[in-house]
Specification:
alpha/beta; single chain
Length: 317
């Protein structure tokens, strides 16, 4: 049996998994992102990646150099050809030659990609989009990430800067986004956007069940509050979910109208709402997609790999 290692680098933790030939994670572990020694964030991240690789291999009785491959998904702009982290905003990484830093310690080149691209590749190789020619993964988390796979390869555009699906505008002059624009899809269809929509509705509707579900405090609202209220028959919760789905449908329909992949997969925390999200989303999208939805239209499905998509995709890079 031969193995690959996939690493998912985040602002809070770095997760790694040993992946077998059937694309299953057989061992995994995590470290706080900047918990290893180093003179700057780049060295600390590299040291954590090396420590994770060495520990996982030792537990399986192999050497890092005997791995089939190793890869990492990293938030931000990545020069995957040269193994450089150009920029990431939640860790202080600027032009960090991470591939060479890791190879120097373990003797194995680290393949690299944007974290959403790596997760999309995982779904394409081993998840909901297995067997497709092309797919888009949209992750509905704190932000709204995305990755596009075309002809079996990650497509990230000129200088690796493409695929920022969350930063397409769906409301001209709308809510401010962390990127500096107004009205981005991320400002409405991420968990952060849904929480904002929920709080605004609660302030308008003092009798909404959402207040009870949030313990009477706006700061306890999360991405489930409106969905849970809707399931209990709360009209204000239903209205929030309807608004959220309209924005998400608009964004995904835009992507389909431009790229028309075989499939769009939905991952991230909000996707755990399942059919309560997926069924009305498809209905709303039928009014938004050019030509309507029929047997020739991109399928929209829930992602299958959950939080493992980034690790598995990175391992298979």
């Amino acid at each position: 049996m031969t193995y690959s290692i996939g690493v998912d680098i985040g602002g809070t933790s770095i997760k790694a998994g040993l992946v077998d030939e059937q694309h299953k994670i057989v061992r995994s572990m995590a470290l706080p992102t900047l918990s290893c020694e180093g003179k700057d964030d780049g060295e600390k991240v590299a040291a954590c990646v090396v420590k994770l690789m060495e520990t996982l291999c030792a537990e399986e009785g192999i050497k890092p150099g005997d791995l089939r491959s190793a890869g990492a998904g990293i938030p931000g702009s990545i020069d995957s050809q040269n193994g450089i982290v150009i920029y990431t905003n939640n860790i202080d990484l600027h032009n960090v030659p991470l591939r060479d830093m890791v190879k120097e310690k373990v003797g194995l080149a680290l393949q690299m990609a944007n974290d959403a691209d790596a997760a999309a590749y995982g779904e394409y190789r081993a998840g909901a989009a297995a067997g497709c020619d092309s797919c888009i993964l949209i992750t509905l988390g704190t932000g709204l990430g995305g990755g596009f796979i075309k002809n079996g390869e990650i497509y990230s555009g000129y200088n690796q800067r493409g695929g920022e699906f969350g930063h397409t505008v769906v409301q001209l002059g709308g809510a401010p986004c962390t990127c500096g624009r107004l009205g981005c899809l991320e400002a409405y269809a991420s968990a952060t956007g849904l929480i904002r929509l929920t709080r605004e509705a609660m302030q308008r509707e003092s009798g909404s069940l959402m207040w009870e579900l949030a313990g009477g405090e706006l700061n306890k609202v999360d991405g489930k509050t409106a969905f849970d209220a809707m399931e209990k028959g709360d009209a204000a919760g239903q209205a929030v979910v309807n608004t959220y789905i309209r924005y998400l449908a608009c964004g995904i329909a835009n992507f389909i109208n431009v790229l028309h992949p075989d499939m769009v997969c939905l991952g991230g925390g909000i996707s755990h709402s399942g059919d309560a999200l997926l069924l009305p989303l498809r209905k709303e999208m039928a009014r938004e997609i050019y030509g309507g939805m029929d047997e020739y239209t991109t399928r929209v499905e829930l992602a299958a790999l959950g939080n493992s998509a980034g690790i598995i995709g990175a391992a298979l890079l």
